[in-house]
Amino acid sequence: MVAVKLKNIVKAFEEVVAVNDFSEEIHDGEFVTLLGPSGCGKTTILRMVAGFEKPTSGEIYFDDQLISGGKTFLPPEKRGISMVFQNYAVWPHMTVFDNVAYPLTIHRIPKDELKTKAEHALKLMHLENYADRLPGQMSGGQQQRVALAGALVAEPKLLLLDEPLSNLDAKLRESMRFEIKRLQKELGITVIYVTHDQTEAMAMSDRIFVMNRGILQQAGTPAEIYNSPVNPFVADFLGKVDFFKGEAENGRIVLPEMGSQTLAYTGDKTGHVYVAIRPENIKLAEDGILSGTLEQQYYLGDVDDCRIRIGDALVRVITDGYAWHTLQEGQSVRLNVREFIVFEDDGSLEEMLRIKT
Ligand SMILES: Nc1ncnc2c1ncn2[C@@H]1O[C@H](COP(=O)(O)OP(=O)(O)OP(=O)(O)O)[C@@H](O)[C@H]1O
Ligand SMILES: [Mg+2]
Residue 42 C-alpha to ligand 1 middle, in angstroms? Predict the structure, then answer.
């Protein structure tokens, strides 16, 4: 219901630059996730959009209206947003129902409509049996859902969610993801969501903004980010990946760590490169181009997680159990790589992959 534009946003806390020259637009009705390791600036961005924090420099617009920048600063209560904080806040003296209904009472909504809406939100969050409890009588995950229900019930034009599912177990988290996403679509709310859980980001987002150390690394759809990461950090942060040194030349890449075995390559990079291979993109094949030895295999039920020794390199392969569980450790295997990503080797790999918090 509103588009958000951030223009050259910088936020410094004394010498710490929490957000460094961040420019992006979140479209009307879009679900965007800020994804990145601890300390990369996610919460700081949300708090600036909400108005709890003032940017050091840069501008924020809601549609074409400047809300923050220069002498303009619209206070949080005038921004028409709901936010669920990372350390979610609920009123301890109010029942669950009153907590959820509270944003509506501010808007002076008729009593029966208020009741219907609050009950609907409670049901979505699987809290319908807890309406009369006080938050102190509930678990952390249940309180988190109370905060979420309260944020949703107000039907804001912009919803800011900072790790709203962090206290829930895996099953509940999956069902909540689905409910939030469904409601967001139904109401057409613009959502900025924060998580460091990549699966959650992939499952829920129209687009993901990957951050590292206050700097936006890449903005794109989940498929773009996963399949075409712009740098090794992004490749490494989303999904599993191994990096190998290579020499790109004449339609192939030679892999010195793999006893100079080669991969066919049609891209345009030459010279020193890094080859990024995701474990699900390596397949066992009798006519495989790489040969190695099965060093370890872990049975995980739905898949096998294997390590193959190829020269000096240890290659991780995740594959469906059928193909593998007949193999013995120490056995020779041949492999095909169906997809890989090539990055120029500018000597920054180690530094880039080191996550500073
Ligand atoms: N009020 C503050 N005063 C000083 N430094 C701050 C303040 N708030 C945040 N920072 C610093 O800014 C950086 C970004 O913090 P932020 O809370 O935005 O990270 P985050 O990405 O949300 O991390 P997490 O995933 O751990 O919640 C960190 O280095 C943090 O220590
Ligand atoms: Mg945070």
Answer: 8
